[in-house]
């Protein structure tokens, strides 16, 4: 699995898998420690998030003590965009596909924002896979506690998405950005404005929001058996704190940690952030003692066909010039393929070629 940030390797490993209905789902793995699979939040873009002044601290700090597996929901980010089914069952299939493809037999499951019903349903359906549950500004039922005024506001949001989501200027998207991180700097708000634009189309944003309204997993909460931690910002404008109370009272033995923040996405410089990190690290402590080893991913799922050909010839002791002649490529192209191979296999330095060949020969 990818080396941690502490090991000096800041890279995530991006992979793709197929959901049961054929939709291609992009997911990423980074960090070191027990596996922590994230049931994705409303908006994500695996590569864009990686450079983010809003999300980078989240990724790097969790990666210090956990192997983080996160994915772009269907219709979003690097996953397939041409999708119309955002039902709970379809989204559950995405999570299951990522869980299976990542290769960990068991893992902790963190539900962020709208990922709550999916995580609850997965933990109920596959209790042997989930070691513990974490909810972060999430919910079991998106409509829990909503008034008529709240529902009217939701309808207004959908009209805003249709009217201005895809526009180059950020005026309409700023409505959502300020709801998510009201305490943010202009730089942070500007980045989130851009995330909204690049992560999803206006059509998909509306479809997904409409179909998520029917995703209610409340009835399954009393049957969950995994240890559960609920973290929620006290003044969250996107998902009210009432959702945290609903989760923590409905799931047997759940522990609630209120976070003194008005941000839906905690920022790195607010006091609530180290409180969040400490709570999650401590909660995963038992998993660190018995972290399962992931199944080795076949090279055919990691390298392209051409990269396998290049590496196979390198394993025969052929130099770059000979590989280029045999495959009718330029030497520069061969070198580029090798660099891609080294990056995907996370080997570097003078021994990178030897290590990559050894990985091929070991199966």
Automatic annotation (TrEMBL):
<dbReference type="InterPro" id="IPR000792">
    <property type="entry name" value="Tscrpt_reg_LuxR_C"/>
</dbReference>
<dbReference type="Pfam" id="PF00561">
    <property type="entry name" value="Abhydrolase_1"/>
</dbReference>
<dbReference type="InterPro" id="IPR029058">
    <property type="entry name" value="AB_hydrolase_fold"/>
</dbReference>
<feature type="domain" description="HTH luxR-type">
    <location>
        <begin position="296"/>
        <end position="361"/>
    </location>
</feature>
<dbReference type="InterPro" id="IPR000073">
    <property type="entry name" value="AB_hydrolase_1"/>
</dbReference>
<dbReference type="InterPro" id="IPR036388">
    <property type="entry name" value="WH-like_DNA-bd_sf"/>
</dbReference>
<dbReference type="GO" id="GO:0003824">
    <property type="term" value="F:catalytic activity"/>
</dbReference>
<dbReference type="InterPro" id="IPR050471">
    <property type="entry name" value="AB_hydrolase"/>
</dbReference>
<protein>
    <submittedName>
        <fullName>Transcriptional regulator, LuxR family</fullName>
    </submittedName>
</protein>
<dbReference type="GO" id="GO:0003677">
    <property type="term" value="F:DNA binding"/>
</dbReference>
<dbReference type="GO" id="GO:0006355">
    <property type="term" value="P:regulation of DNA-templated transcription"/>
</dbReference>
<dbReference type="Pfam" id="PF00196">
    <property type="entry name" value="GerE"/>
</dbReference>
<dbReference type="InterPro" id="IPR016032">
    <property type="entry name" value="Sig_transdc_resp-reg_C-effctor"/>
</dbReference>
